[in-house]
Specification:
2 copies of one chain form a homodimer. With 348 residues, the first copy, chain A, is an alpha+beta fold. Chain A has a single domain, classed as 2-Layer Sandwich (HIT family, subunit A), CATH 3.30.428. Helices cover 24% and strands 22% of the residues of chain A. Chain A is built from 6 helices and 15 strands. In chain A, strands 3-4-7-9-8-13-14-12-11-10 form a 10-stranded antiparallel sheet, sandwiched between helices. Chain A has a 4-stranded antiparallel sheet with strand order 2-1-6-5, with no helix packed on it. In chain A, helix 1 crosses helix 4. The radius of gyration of chain A is 20 Å and the shape is globular. Strand 15 of chain A pairs parallel with strand 2 of chain B, so a sheet runs across the interface.
């Protein structure tokens, strides 16, 4: 089992992942497919993954068979594992917790080739439904302190498998970065009696230097203090701290703005590697007036180097205003030719 | 001029570096030598860099000519620039400061090929002298809030030029990461009435699971909560919060332990890309009993991905105890054949 360890100075936690243990010579292999040429996320290979925890498929079909269009499975090499209690212990001055948690993979489509930006809006909607469903389910678990949904696209953004997928990691404690965001948002609220994110939305709409798109329920902006070139945030226009209370019609709207944003990035930056992260309040927190859930998308174009590691400052060579002009002017349709198969598995 | 911008939620600052401005298509080129095949840090090319601010060279030789062995120059494409006052201003709810600061390059050797791990201890000593000298000089400047010395080795660790060099960036404010370390160290001190770093040193010496080496004045350890595989810290054994008060005999000792640590990493991990950062207290802080300067070395073996960006947690697949066993068992001599030239420039 993995182990969570706390840095005694900063209070930052790390996961020492014994299930993923690596010896020095193993770091060369950037990507390690379980079986060369066999993708565990493709139709027909369902037995290569642990049994599914959720799938959207035709109602009369069995689990762990083909004919699904979105499938959620436990990660075969989990950073944290279910079972047991999160026990705290010590080694002298140091603190640790055993690695209890959840690590799942949301396989976005049976199609190995098609990126999220090229999927139909109706399909992305189903992926977002799967996010909501998994968060709803895990939120009831008292052992879980936080649930993070994130996507790595491209090897240099940390994707070890090509097949389009999102990941979910649920941790026994609230991560330090989330704590800091909550604390900062609370401080702003105490001073202004307004949500900082709601203020950002109002500011960016009034003076649209960094406004990429606004729909009925969502807004996409390049944040004022972008850490990375072309960093983009998607935020609900109405205040909400929990993602899983999202309504069906909002899901559809979110699927559209997410598709168009990823499509614009694809076209401007030529299919860049990227990460996106769903920033939400911890599941056991009450709804609050200061935190506002949102999605942060960061293309991987620059290298985080010594200055960033030593200071926490980021050097961004492209201003968000300039990035916004490029993205706003771009096409969002991804010129992607779908292979001769359909996404709901009728080819079986 | 660059601009420092503050994230209204987390208080994190970013540098929007207009001097390094990049358009979308320019991100493909991982490395951009100013003139292909011409290295501005090699002998004879001194005129390709701004005039030097410091060099160690034979006493009768002129500046900006060959015949130096360590040379410090302003960065030609600085993230922050000297001149002017750090003025604070606002755009609506957002805060910014104009990009006043210092960005220098410490060219470690005239030899384009020889990595720090293969330099003689006496030469590394001179590089550390240059670090000390530049910090001493800049510490007197009231416009400077913090001075960070860092090294990027290898393109994937952010080095844009091969020639061995270290960088120095001085910022008008104390970076958030340094503030957090100071705050955490102070909190520990308030509770324990002891320095957390001094406690770590005592712990690691008593039970040497993660102890790489201890010399008269320094200790090298794999920290308990290592974020990255083979992350290594070098700390002075006696409490000290400022690096620039280091004594000459300690510099010699530090040069030795730094060389051996980098050499061990080179041999175990086959010349890995890495960053190192000198963590020191802000120059205008009084000496304090809770902060302890140190060097953090992080090999770049894993990819920081969505989970890390979304949580601030790190997933480390190699425990520090295991990393320590590999490094401790390794040779530290780097099998490097020096080209047919000597480092003090006598070949001119």
């Amino acid at each position: 089992m993995s182990e969570l360890r706390k840095d005694p100075i900063t209070g930052r936690w790390v996961i020492i992942a014994s299930e993923r243990s690596k010896r020095p010579k193993e770091f060369d292999t950037l990507r390690a497919d379980p079986l060369p040429g066999v993708c565990p996320f493709c139709y027909g290979n369902e037995s290569l993954t642990p049994p599914e925890v959720l799938s959207f498929r035709h109602p009369r079909k069995d689990p762990d068979e083909p004919d699904w269009w979105v499938r959620v499975i436990p990660n075969k090499y989990p950073a944290l594992t279910e079972g047991g209690e999160p026990l705290r212990s010590a080694e002298g001055m140091y603190d640790m917790i055993n690695g209890v948690g959840v690590h799942e993979v949301i396989v976005e489509t049976p199609d190995h080739q098609i990126p999220m930006a090229a999927l139909p809006v109706e399909h992305i909607r189903e992926i977002i439904w799967a996010y909501r469903e998994r968060i709803n389910d895990l939120s009831a678990n008292p052992k879980i302190g936080y649930i993070l949904i994130f996507k790595n696209h491209g090897p240099s953004a940390g994707a070890s498998l090509d097949h389009p997928h999102t990941q979910l990691i649920a941790t026994p404690i609230v991560p330090v970065l989330v704590e800091e965001e909550l604390k900062g948002a609370k401080k702003y609220f105490k001073y202004k009696e307004r949500c900082a994110f709601c203020d950002m939305i109002a500011h960016e709409r009034r003076k649209p230097l960094r406004l990429l798109e606004a729909t009925e329920s969502f807004i996409a902006i390049e944040p004022f203090a972008s850490r990375f070139p072309f960093e983009t945030w998607i935020m609900p226009r109405h205040h909400s701290c929990h993602f899983n209370t999202i309504l069906d019609r909002e899901v559809e709207d979110l699927a559209g703005i997410l598709k168009r944003t990823l499509g614009r990035m694809w076209n401007v930056l030529d299919d860049p590697p990227f990460n996106f992260m769903l920033h939400v309040a911890p599941p056991h927190d009450e709804c609050n007036p200061y935190y506002h859930w949102h999605i942060e998308i960061i293309p991987k174009l620059t290298t985080v180097a010594g200055f960033e590691w030593g200071s926490g400052f980021y050097i961004n060579p492209t201003s968000p205003e300039e990035a916004c002009r490029f993205l706003r002017d771009a096409e969002w349709e991804v010129p992607y030719t779908k292979p001769n198969r359909v996404f709901q598995g009728q080819n079986k």
